[in-house]
Structure formats: structure tokens, C-alpha cells
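Severity: low
Component: inverse-folding endpoint
Summary: output formatting inconsistent between runs
Steps to reproduce: submit the following C-alpha cells with default settings.
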């Protein structure tokens, strides 16, 4: 029951990332928003770790945490936001993101010793098809064929970064506390976002209420809450089963955009949502077997 509630809460929180990004980007430079967001989240989780007396990882484990954060927070967020801000249609970026669970599943089987039953692969394929149905109208309107090489490459690298950061959570760092893990990993992402801000040289920030509200939710909801749930789910369910939940994010975000911004939600998208939900439920209905158990968090 706890795992099911955590999975539902994670999907609900994570889906708002598309909505928050759309609301905030017109009011501030994307790289600056991410740098501030990740730095504030690092401070918040460091305080929580200090209160809980969770020890700072050292040596190799510290390096792995920083690497996971750099990929999961830094590369994924900065590159995907940059791609969208430079001509990559949001629907295409979301479709690329939906391939992340497939990358994680293949890597888990190839490198981590997981064995996924046929039902999991079928569910994954159905869910990806459902996501494609949800995003198809947006892709057709945006003219996917006109995407420049730079944004396209950035989008692919962003998804690879998230897949790599997710897989690292499965290793020896799984024994560290959630708060200190989040603090160090957000710190790794913040360093990359700060570097991207300095490189871009754009410091636009108009200070409107929408920007501050979006920042508050990004820190407390998306980064502190959503990413902590992501780490918890990877440790308890494995990277493949957790990643399948991400396939529910684009359909749910489409529903939220319909409610908040009046974006079109047609029959094909509703069918796609049903396919994505059914595929994820089918794929997660069996626990993958592994050569080694997932380490439990301290």
C-alpha cells in the first residue's frame, strides 16, 4: 500500500514539471531558474539531513552521488529546457523522455543482471505507444521535421543523462539516507546549472508572482518531494519498475494542460492515456528477478 501511494504521488508531482516550466520560462532565463531551484533544494535537504543526523557520504560514494545528481538533475533539466527553449517542440521532448524507461530496462538487463518477463516488455511497448498517441497532435502541430541538430542532440543527451542517473541509484549509494542523498545529488546538479547559467550569460528575472510561486513549487514539490520519491522508489522497486511510472507523466501533463491552459485533448489522446495506464500496470505487475538484491536505505 505504501509503495502504491508513493508511486501515485510521484506521478502526480512529476507531471507538474511540464506545467511549471511553461509558466516560468517566459519570466526568467531557464538556466538561472534551474540554478536557483537546485541550490535552494540542496540547502533545504542539507538542513533536513543535519536534523536527521545523516552522515555525509565520503570517498567513492560521494563521487557517485555527485555523478548521479549531475546526470539526473543537471544534464537532464538544463539540456531539456535548453532544447525546448531553442526550438525543440515540448511534445517531441516529452516523447523522447518516454524512451527513458526502455533505456533503463535494456541497461538493467545488460549490465545489472535483471531478468524482465515477457509481460513487462509487452507492457512497456504498449505504454510507449500510448504516450505517442497522447503527444501525436502536438507533434503534428509543431512540425517535428524542422528540429535543428543542436536541440535534437541536446534532447537525446538529456534523456540519456536521466537514465544514467536513475541507474546509479541502484548501486552502493542506496544505503545512504534519502535527505543527504538528495542534498548531495541536487548539489551536483546545481553546479552544472550554475555553469550553464554563466556560459549562457542570460540573467533575466522579472520577479512576477507566477515566477516565485513556480519556484517555490519546483523546490518543495518537484525537487525535494518528487526527486526524493524517485530515489525511494528506485531503491525499493528497482530502476525499471520505477522508470515505467514516467510513461504516465506526459498523458497526465496533457490533462493538466487541458484543465489549466485550455489545450486540446481529443479522442486519440484519451485512448493514448488508457493505453499508457494499461501498459504501465501490465509492466509493473511482475517483479524483475536480479542477481543481487537492491540495497535498502539506512
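Observed output (run 2 of 3):
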Amino acid at each position: 500500500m505504501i509503495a502504491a501511494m508513493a508511486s501515485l504521488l510521484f506521478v502526480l508531482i512529476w507531471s507538474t514539471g511540464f506545467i511549471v516550466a511553461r509558466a516560468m520560462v517566459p519570466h526568467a532565463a531557464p538556466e538561472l531558474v534551474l540554478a536557483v531551484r537546485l541550490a535552494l533544494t540542496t540547502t533545504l535537504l542539507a538542513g533536513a539531513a543535519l536534523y536527521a543526523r545523516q552522515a555525509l557520504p565520503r570517498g567513492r560514494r560521494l563521487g557517485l552521488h555527485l555523478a548521479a545528481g549531475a546526470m539526473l538533475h543537471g544534464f537532464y533539466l538544463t539540456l531539456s529546457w535548453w532544447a525546448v527553449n531553442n526550438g525543440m517542440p515540448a511534445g517531441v521532448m516529452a516523447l523522447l523522455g518516454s524512451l527513458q524507461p526502455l533505456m533503463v530496462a535494456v541497461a538493467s538487463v545488460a549490465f545489472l543482471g535483471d531478468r524482465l518477463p515477457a509481460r513487462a516488455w509487452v507492457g512497456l511497448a504498449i505504454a510507449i505507444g500510448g504516450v505517442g498517441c497522447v503527444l501525436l497532435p502536438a507533434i503534428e502541430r509543431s512540425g517535428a521535421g524542422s528540429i535543428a541538430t543542436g536541440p535534437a542532440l541536446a534532447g537525446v543527451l538529456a534523456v540519456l543523462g536521466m537514465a544514467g542517473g536513475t541507474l546509479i541509484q541502484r548501486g552502493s549509494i542506496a544505503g545512504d539516507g534519502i535527505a543527504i542523498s538528495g542534498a548531495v545529488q541536487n548539489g551536483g546538479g546545481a553546479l552544472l546549472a550554475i555553469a550553464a547559467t554563466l556560459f549562457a550569460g542570460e540573467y533575466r528575472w522579472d520577479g512576477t508572482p507566477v515566477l516565485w510561486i513556480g519556484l517555490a513549487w519546483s523546490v518543495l514539490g518537484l525537487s525535494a518531494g518528487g526527486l526524493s520519491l524517485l530515489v525511494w522508489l528506485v531503491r525499493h522497486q528497482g530502476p525499471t519498475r520505477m522508470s515505467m511510472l514516467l510513461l504516465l507523466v506526459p498523458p497526465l501533463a496533457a490533462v493538466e494542460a487541458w484543465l489549466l491552459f485550455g489545450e486540446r485533448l481529443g479522442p486519440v489522446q484519451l485512448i493514448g492515456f488508457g493505453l499508457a495506464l494499461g501498459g504501465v500496470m501490465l509492466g509493473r505487475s511482475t517483479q524483475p528477478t536480479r542477481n543481487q538484491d537492491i540495497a535498502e536505505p539506512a
